[in-house]
Amino acid sequence: MRVTPGASRDEVRIVDGAVHLRVSAPPADGAANAAVIKLLAAALAVPPRDLTLLRGASARLKLIGVALD
User: What is the domain count for the chain?
Assistant: First the structure.
């Protein structure tokens, strides 16, 4: 998924089959990554503990793992 930190509002969009997340948190001290996990968890209706940032901690393109029961 593609992430845009420092946006004016938080939102999840599907653009050309790809997930785009916009978070208002700044890209400093992991704040944007935490906001991405929180926003995606809300969108998927799962607890944030079920999501793991697998790749892209300091990049705009991220890979998030979702734990299934």
Answer: 1
